[in-house]
Amino acid sequence: MGVEGKERTRELEAGAQVLSGQLGKTIQRLRKAYNLSLSELAEQSGVAKSIISQIERNETNPTLATIWRLSQALDVSIERVLATVDDEPFIQKSSRPDTPILVSDDGKMRLAIIGWIKTVEWLQWYDIASEPGGVLDSDAHQRGSVEHLSVLEGEFEVEVAGVVQRARAGETLRYRCDRPHTVRCVAGEPGRATMVCILKAAVME
What we know:
10 strands; Jelly Rolls; 2 domains; alpha+beta; 434 Repressor (Amino-terminal Domain); six-stranded antiparallel sheet
């Protein structure tokens, strides 16, 4: 490792020690963005569940190697994980490698998590790209949650509790997502859409 590489490593290690408080919150938000349990993140990262729990509760200063394994499992750069509120510019830019991607079970629909990590517990939004016929099945979110699907290209349909509604480019579907729901790309062409999920919303009667 060259001199510059060693200096960079020392900077990151120092950052890990100083920023452990913010780091725990960041790890927890990223984990929840992926809907991962502590056990699932432990399995994917190779970091013990007890260690991850301690990091999230700010009870330990993790090593650089531990932060690197967690960042790899969460699909974000280590610099992004170590970023502090004070260091972030007023205008913030996220690069493509720093944007986590979720993939539907059939592999045809990809959701880029473009929402702000600080709001993931109550507001999430995604950029959706789907092959024709792509299907995204989702479990129920917490009571009162609502999703908004705005179609940019192609045609999508949403099914909630046996009720189905379709939308084309320029149209938006809003629906309760506190019960199992399904999003499908139904046109014979690729589809693009944005999805916003509002959690902890007022309960709809």
